[in-house]
Write a structure and sequence with these properties.
2 copies of one chain form a homodimer. The first copy, chain A, is of the alpha/beta class. The first copy, chain A, is 42% helix and 15% strand. Chain A contains 13 helices and 12 strands. Chain A has a 6-stranded parallel beta sheet with strand order 2-1-3-4-5-11, sandwiched between helices. Chain A has a 6-stranded mixed beta sheet with strand order 7-6-8-9-10-12, sandwiched between helices. In chain A, helix 11 links the parallel strand 8 and strand 9. Chains A and B meet through helix 4, helix 5, strand 2, helix 6 and helix 11 of A and helix 4, helix 5, strand 2, helix 6 and helix 11 of B. Chain A binds a DNA duplex through helix 2 and helix 4.
Chain lengths: 342, 342
DNA sequence: AATTTCCATGCAACCGGTTACATGAAACCG
DNA sequence: CGGTTTCATGTAACCGGTTGCATGGAAATT
């Protein structure tokens, strides 16, 4: 068996300092209650011998693990989508949690298929809270978790529960701004390629599109609304359908950048030009949006903000604060070549 | 304070079954040593009352946490690169670990800046092993970890240590195949845009390029080798430099797809065409490679294989097996439009 | 029938922390 | 000066598992 370096225990450190283990424990958890000299002695001795408190023992005694679970579905065979900026969320979340002394534990989706598998994992590991990244699949394992006493933050999917809240972008407002922008650049026949209507971002961006059409006094032509699935190929197909209309649009708002890029490809293939013939706005501001010629105008989501907001919300609940209200992050219009004035 | 559902303990379950806690423990850890009837009784009672073993207590007693740490640098301000398929690695790793009953704990890079911060985190949490995703930054915190008794697997970066191994792609072989393929389609003036020479993939792909030139009897023209940093913009700049040569190449092997796409843009901007004027091969097979017209020929890395291989290696070491030899994953040539025969 | 072996299980110490409560000394107060 | 506070620290139980060793009964052996 592999050799394991023994790590000093709290009692050993206590003996070396000539104090009790309780005092050492206080030095690390309640420094202000212990005498300054004693404290310094303990701290310096700890540094000298490389004492590290054992987290398992702490967790066992306190029932707080300083760990937050991350649930995100890795099963790409089932319908749903890759979150467009999973990596950024992860970075934001991780950074914000680290700053407050929390770690992130990955949980597989429905590990064993039972509906309470997440809740069980949380209980086994004494997780202090959970963050869930939506991907369009309605995972039944989420319900027991949301209904429980475990602090839970969901991204992009509203979930109900006493200790549950969510973070999302201002999808309605963003979509409205997209349409308003297209209108301002002179377009009048504005179509949209939506996300799946069962998903929150999909439904809300459509809502925003319709609202803004009404606000601008533009007629809503139902044939200008085509549903996609957030993936590139669906944007491509939807655009072909739109171009085949008797009266094709002169502008398209796609509810996701990938679909917008698929649409852009379809326009090019049809021998038309962006933005001369068709203007295009996406949503998300994925990295590629800036790279694909002529540059995709889009509604940028506050990517790092998702992680930060989720971390803040979950930590508030962990500390016993009231469940934070859902957090709606503002989006911002990034204008690029695809909506150049013509 | 938030209400916490109490979870049954092992002693409670034992009492309910009329056995000792030792027996219950054996039912879960060494089922074969306990009488079949007793075992069934314990299991069914456990299921009925929803007993869940407390992992912290287990870890405390056994010094095995069934957790593997993941180190990946989130600091994008320092020089380095985003790993081209971080997400796929994460999925592969997570899936493979879950299957064997391990969880993944995210560790921030150099959380507190001290060189042994990883090692300390590992000790505090009793992590059974660690996986490190290279991103081109030489993180000094990695050394103490590699030198320790902690099983450690590095991706794309060879690290030395008794319980340390690594997983990487066949960079030399892949690069050779790229050059061979370009040669086979009739190109003779083959340039390369390399990765940073201090990085392993960068150095090896250059090696493969040079080796294959020699094998094919092509002359090595030093001006046809330009160093990039794996990011798109560097590929763009490098390509401009190559096009400005007195005798520009008719083919370019870029050591990464992002650089290849940058190069492709530069070619287009110069009024030239891919593949008619310049053929292009990348490396990695990122998603975008298939999407950018005319389709980028590239060497696909076995993305899921990285995660799976890393998981297998770390688990072997955790179980006390001999440190596995470095694992070199084969690459495969994916031919797309950018190297069409002309 | 006595002895040995085997099987299933219990006992109790242990893992390394935390914390309610007790204690004793010093400071404060009328 | 006796009594009350305050402060710093120690004592010991506890968190919920695991596991070496002991035990007792049944089965096998002689």
């Amino acid at each position: 068996m592999r050799y394991r370096t023994p790590v000093a225990t709290i009692r050993e450190l206590a003996r070396l300092c000539g104090v009790s283990s309780a005092t050492v424990s206080r030095v690390f958890n309640n420094p202000e209650v212990v005498n300054a000299q004693t404290r310094e002695l303990v701290l310096s001795t700890a540094a000298r011998i490389g004492y590290l408190p054992n987290e398992s023992a702490r967790t066992l005694a306190t029932k707080r693990s300083h760990m937050v679970g991350l649930i995100w579905d890795t099963d790409h065979r089932r319908p749903g989508w890759r979150h467009p900026f999973f990596q950024e969320i992860l970075i934001g979340l991780k950074t914000a949690l680290s700053e407050r002394g929390y770690h992130l534990l990955m949980l597989a989706t429905s590990e064993d298929g039972t509906p309470d598998s997440f809740l069980r994992a949380v209980r086994r590991h004494n997780l202090d809270g959970v963050v869930f990244i939506d991907n369009g699949r309605a995972d039944p394992s989420l319900q027991p978790l949301a209904a429980s006493e475990v602090p839970c933050v969901s991204l992009d999917r509203p979930v109900q529960g006493p200790w549950t809240t969510y973070v999302t972008s201002d999808n309605v407002g963003g979509a409205r701004e997209a349409v308003r922008h297209l209108h301002a650049t002179g377009r009048r026949a504005i179509a949209t390629i939506t996300g799946p209507s069962r998903t929150r971002p999909g439904a809300e961006r459509l809502r925003g599109y319709l609202d803004e059409l009404a606000a601008l006094g533009l007629a809503h032509r139902p044939e200008l609304v085509v549903e996609g699935d957030f993936y590139l190929s669906s944007g491509h197909a939807a655009m072909r359908a739109l171009l085949a209309l008797e009266e094709p649009p002169d502008a398209v708002f796609a509810a996701g950048d990938e679909m917008a890029i698929g649409a852009l490809r379809a326009v090019t293939e049809a021998g038309l030009k962006v933005p001369e013939d068709i203007a295009l706005v996406g949503f998300d501001d994925i990295e590629l949006a800036a790279l694909v010629p002529p540059g995709l105008t889009t509604l940028a989501q506050d990517k790092a903000g998702f992680g930060t907001a989720a971390a803040a919300a979950v930590i508030t609940m962990i500390n016993g604060g009231v469940t934070p209200l859902p957090r709606i992050l503002p989006t911002s219009l990034v204008v690029r070549g695809s909506t150049r004035q013509i």
